[in-house]
Design brief:
homodimer, about 190 residues, mainly alpha, Arc Repressor Mutant, subunit A, Tetracycline Repressor, domain 2, 2 domains, 9 helices, elongated, DNA-binding
Chain lengths: ~190, ~190
DNA sequence: CACCTGATGTCAGCTCCTGTCATCACGTAG
DNA sequence: CTACGTGATGACAGGAGCTGACATCAGGTG
């Protein structure tokens, strides 16, 4: 055993999610999170930039996966087809994390500050996708619009996937949302 | 003359924008804003919920205008056509406020916290548009996707309108973005 | 004149977050 | 084996954002 219990970061994340869920984000102090993880407040801020970020550590992974899949699409693929590959890759990643995603999302939707943070992560994703499309030769503003549209599809499919009543696979919901988007933008 | 100088709210907003532009958002304290407006810190927080909100007082107006135009579209209009009427209404509103919008946007884009707040205002707009479309009989998820797409069009048109080099009318940029969105979603 | 109202000032206090320095197990060089 | 460096952590002070509670006081109202 080392000098400290291992995985301080993970313990902080777990403690934070638990407390945010138990008593609400605003009613939880960083000192309490740290205490539950057996650490101090100062150490919390060494692992996470702020009180919100502890819930968004996985965002970078999602972005990397999405961008990677789009970048790896065949050169001949149209922008929306490349983005669809990215959406599929993301869907796969979510497949076995439904319960965790649900608890986490319940906390986020319950608080405006956390929703703000979530939105900027999605915006960062859109920006990264825009850059990737541009690297594939797509011009502006088409690249930006396609990226925003793909993120909207992800957002809405995710919203429906989270609903406990549905229980449908993420991939299916994404295909449906994509089809709806095409219908609604071409229909007018 | 009343007991106090009139328009405390407006004075605070003006002082805040000036200071944020001068020395940056983070380097400005609320006490400084209040002092420049001839008020106290406590009074600032009576007018604005937090240090960011002072830049977003007009967001409600934008949302109302957009939603009103969509709601007032002919019943026969397709979702995207109704949304286009909303986009046009918004474009008109921006027409004579370019300089103010530029200064404000420069401050916002320079700071992540302010971008977060901007994003949640846009999300609120998308939610309001979704509700309006649903009121017009559009089902989910089509309503949500159409709303998100319209907000994406607004976002990207606005980005281009702000660029000093361009100087093209907002309405024209919106039409262009809309056409690009249709092209990119139907082309694949 | 007495009273109420509403915008503001004053003050105490919590929480978030940061800078700085101390601590101390572990690894490594000698 | 000792000495030293390293890296994660603790301890402490302090600024800034934000809130609650109470005081103040010009104006309107009876």
């Amino acid at each position: 055993m080392g000098r400290w219990e291992p995985d301080a970061r993970g313990r902080l994340a777990k403690a934070a999610l638990a407390l945010y869920a138990e008593r609400g984000y605003e009613q939880t102090t960083v000192a309490e999170i740290a205490k539950r993880a057996g650490l101090t407040e100062r150490t919390f801020f060494r692992h996470y930039a702020d009180k919100r970020e502890v819930l968004f550590a996985g965002a970078g992974e999602l972005e990397g996966l999405f961008v990677g899949a789009v970048a790896g699409a065949p050169e001949s693929a149209a922008p929306l087809d490349a983005l669809t590959l990215g959406l599929d890759a993301v869907a796969e990643m979510f497949a076995d994390r439904r319960e965790f995603a649900c608890r986490r999302q319940a906390v986020i939707t319950a608080n405006a500050e956390l929703r703000e943070r979530e939105l900027i992560k999605l915006a960062s994703l859109a920006a990264a996708l825009t850059g990737t499309l541009r690297g594939r030769g797509v011009a502006q503003p088409a690249a930006g619009l396609a990226a925003e549209a793909a993120v909207a599809v992800f957002k809405i499919a995710f919203e429906r996937w989270i609903v406990p009543a549905e229980e449908r696979p993420m991939r299916e919901l994404i295909r449906e949302s994509l089809a709806e988007l095409k219908a609604v933008t071409s229909g007018a």
